Structure formats: structure tokens, C-alpha cells
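Entries read chain and fold; for instance:
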Amino acid sequence: MLTCFIACKDKYNPEIHLPASGFLVVEGFINTGKGPTTISLSRTVGLDSTVIVPESGAQVEVQSESGASYALAGQAGGKYIIDQLPIDSGQKYRLHIKTSNGKDYLSDLSAVKISPPIDSVNWKAQPDFLSIYVSTHDDRNLSLYYQWNFEETWQYHSAYTSKLEFNPKDCTIVARPDNDLIYTCWKMNQSTEIFLATTTDLSSDVVYQFPLLNISYYSSDRLVSRYSILVKQMVLNKDWYEWKQRLRKNTEQLGSIFDAQPSETGGNIYCTTDASEQVIGFVGCSSISEKRIFIDRTEIPAVYVYSGYELCQVDTVSNAKLPLFYYFGSGYGVPTEPYQHGSIILGSSGGCVDCRNKGGKTVKPDFWH
């Protein structure tokens, strides 16, 4: 039986005919509400590469069915941006791209979709994690197809406050300036999953308590002090929604023998100078609705919350040049505060004192209150 099982294994070599320049990948949408429209252009690469190849030097514009056009400004990394579009909700819009090699690409004309307000973003404390939900509805029964993404921001503190810093010029300990405090940081994260829901099978256009994410108490420091989530909602048309579903299956639900097989993603963008060329992407038109909430640590039940500083400890260092140099001059240790009238300095590793070592920034976000 073992021999037969081994003999059934066969190496899989996918037949993917990738052109030398790669397929053009178009990411983004036409923002029909307030805020910028951002389109990212890149090229696909082989399966053995993780490099992203941006498509720079292109001319990108949004066109209306009446003939008006609005050019996007090229940015670094293959991004093209326009701050605000004068959208007429009665018009249809599409994207026109001309790459640096002279090829033209057009997306299908899409009707303007208006996202209704988000009713609520709420949370519930579970035994081992905190769950976050979003609810919305459309009295007009015109939305039907929804997508959400979110931005997370959380505040955390290092294990120890550093009121001092090491001066390497003369091996002395001096007061740390107020503008260089490294105890409190903020960290940000953007969602990468595709969150979709439809109300086409319901009697009313209502989405109630759609689950967005679960935050573990024990493996994430998001809830250790104060947490905020900004949820963004878009409304899709049927074709756009179905394309997003295929994209989600191809990117998030592959890996086991029980998952769906890969499907061709395609999209609504075509090369008008070469009909045989495949383009990856779907450009639709939607406004964005947003809602932000804050969650304080004091609002969460009295459970243990992971901080990442569980193994930290304080060391004592003699306030003499040689010990100070060995402990702080190498960059390993950071002084925290004096001890015993300054004859001894307390310190710990940078990972326990400098909150930036965990990837955060000491600059408070503008929306934080």
C-alpha cells in the first residue's frame, strides 16, 4: 500500500504562458464620492518570483460616456492619482490607459454606485478573542453587493519608561529630551482579505453584524492599551462582485485538496491594440462610506492580554564610564532611570524600552483622541 501511495505522487507543472513583459495588472476603482482615485499598475511575474514590477510612465485617465476625461498624475511605484473627480451620478465612467510601449487599454463603462452610510461598527468580547462586526442597509434596495476593508491603529507602551539616554562622546548619562520619548507608540495595519456580502436573497437590503475579524487576546498586542478600526464600505455591481468572488477564491481559499480549483480571473479591462493580450483587473465606480470606533483596554473583560514584553527585565549598571560603555555603548541597552541617588543606573534592552523596535511610531495620529 505504501508503494502504491508513493507511486501516485506526480510533480505538477502548471502550463502558464507568461509573456516576456508579463500581464498588465490594474488595481483600484473610480471613486465617485469624496477623496482621491488611486490606480496601481504592475506586471505579473513567474511563480518562482515574489518581486512586484510596477508599470511606470503610463498615461492614465478617467473617461465619462459623454466624452469628458480626467488625467491621473503618475507617482512612484506605478501609482496614478487624482485628488477629486467631478462625478455626475447619471453618467457612466471607464478607465483609459496608454502604457509607455504605446499600447492602449480600456475598461468597460460602469454605472456610478453610491454606498449608503454604515449603520454601526461594533464588537463583542468572546472568551479568547474580540470579534468586530459591521452593519449597514439601503432603504432604496439598490446596493445589494457590498465590500469592506479596514485600517487598524493601536496604541501600546514599552515595558519601561526611558527618562535618560547615553551620550557616547563622554560616556555619560543625560536627560532624554521631551521630543525623543520612546515609551508610547502607534502601529497601523491594513486588511488584506476580501470581505464581501450580498443581500440579493433577502427580503430587504440589510446586512446585520457581518463578521470582519477576530483579535486574539493571547497572540496580538492590539488590545493591550487602546485600539481603533476604520471600516470602509463600497457598493459593487453584480459583475464586479462576481469578479471579486473569483479573486478571493484564487488568493485566499487555495491550498488544500478540498478548496475550489483555480479559475481564470480576467476582468473588465481589455487591450484595444492587441485583442489577444490578457489583462488582469476590474475597474468599477463606487463611493466610500467610513466609520471609526475606538476600544479601550478598560472596556475589555479582565482577561490576560498579550503585550510582547512578558520576558523583559531591568538591569543595574554602575554609573562609571567603563560599565556604562559596555552596557549602553554597544547599542544593546537603553537607560531608564537613576537608582540609589544616581550611583547606579537602571537599564534594559532596546526591545523592552524603545517601543519603535516593535514597528510602531511615536507620532500620534491626527484622528487619535
